[in-house]
Amino acid sequence: MSLEFRRIEAEPVPPTAQQHMVRMRDGVRLATDVYAPAGGGPAPAVLVRLPYDKNSRYVFMDKVAERFTARGYVLVVQDVRGKFRSEGATTAWTGEVNDGYDSIEWITNQEWSNGIVGMFGDSYYGFAQWSAVASQHPALRAIVPRVTSTGFAPSVMNPGNPSIRRVPWMEGAIYLATHWVDSHTYDYRPDYSVRPLRDTFEQAFEAIGSRSTAFDLTVPSPIALDAYNATHPYDARPVPVLHCVGWFDNIGSAHMYDYTQLAKRPGWAAVQYLWADSIDHENNFLHEAPLHDDDDHSANDEALERMLDSYTGPALDFYDVFLKGLKDPGSLPRVRWHLGHVGWQTSEVWPPAGAQTYSLFLADVEAATGTAPGGSLSEQAGTGSVDWRYDPDDLVPSAVPNTWEFLRRYPDESATADRGDVLLFSGAVLEEPLDLAGPVELRLEVASSAPTFDVLAKLVDVGPDGATHQIVRGDAQGTCRGELRLDLGHTGYRLRPGHRLALMITSSDFPLYVPNSGTDESPWLTVTPKPSTQTLHSGVLSLTVTR
User: Fold this and answer.
1) How far is Cα 424 from Cα 450, in angstroms, rounded to an integer?
2) 395-418 pLDDT tens trace
3) What's the first-to-final CA gap in the chain, in angstroms?
């Protein structure tokens, strides 16, 4: 039976925009909308380059334009090469440096432009901003990359610190196989019962009648790509950047990696600003989670209007400083961050001044495979070891079908914590608030009966009623026995009195992550994955806290 799919085509250009077909250096033309402020006259322009249909309700650029033009900015929105109305081959990542440069050059030669350009946008259109930085066009004066990464190409399969060997991320493969097939986007439900697992997507490509070049370059083994034409953004001319990060974003670790790396570089450190909110990749808020219909900005126009205030406001304030020069840069907080369950904070550095590393050891390990509270998170190191199983025929189910919009469902994961193939370590019930403000890291000494094994960990908040909610997560892939380091990302989050901190460790999370083969064979290509047993010998959880 052929797989059923829905083809998503371009929506009409809104009457408030004027579309142009802008010619690139190789003759390919890119569909580009211009939203100009009332009154005319040259003004700074903000460029958005995206692959998700510039005119769709999904990206709501017509609504964004209302706010930008009201502040005196021209908003220029473009379908990237090979997507929707733009010409050219559909290949993710490559070509954005030259196209970014040429698009900025076109803007500077228009009568409505004063020659000053900024850039804006989420996810892939954040990567497009970093590509333009790598092009080093002199008119680019400020960028606002949101929930993204300079390493967006590898981060689709390996979000976070590139030195950590990660578990293959199924959501990354789905992204490539739905958004990067041809000029359209495709919506379908993969059949995860197919083996080998890679053939799940072969069904889709056969039904659609076209393949994803980006998928073929990535699955089963990513091919190294020079996305930046030899000059990485870190090595380019520094421009002011407002990093807009989501504590619940599924590629938040990758974005914070950029921020922390650039903070070490002369030139870049002086022009970096951080804005971090308790949101997921799709800009859903912790305080509204799980979402009700009235708070769903993907469908509710009133909710969208509320969301757009926080979505555009920080960027516009940033541009007023660096594109218009209306205020001194010192008027902007270097770091503005949201403390979950409390509210907004400001600081000069991240982690904030006074933050300290707080280490908790994994103790009472023999109890970790039992029901809650399991083992303990202790200030004293424990002894002993504990086994847990990996069964490819009984995988730990993923808590949500889509972590891009994790806070839409914001699931209670207490049932998963009680599984026998999940290790659970719980801290004491808190009598005082505990504020997490910075990176979270887990180091484990683990052995396995298999040549390769996966470790997936979640730091969770357990309420007085036992409800268990994720704060941060991370993963790593190991071989035989040794130390594993898991980067669980950064967060700003208050654990309230009566709650307790807990850690969940497992070896599968399906279908969000590709199940381990249990052998040296690729997990994408194996037909008969093998079970294995992992043994935890020791572990320490490092938190960054303010007291």
Assistant:
1) 22
2) 999 999 999 999 999 999 999 999
3) 59
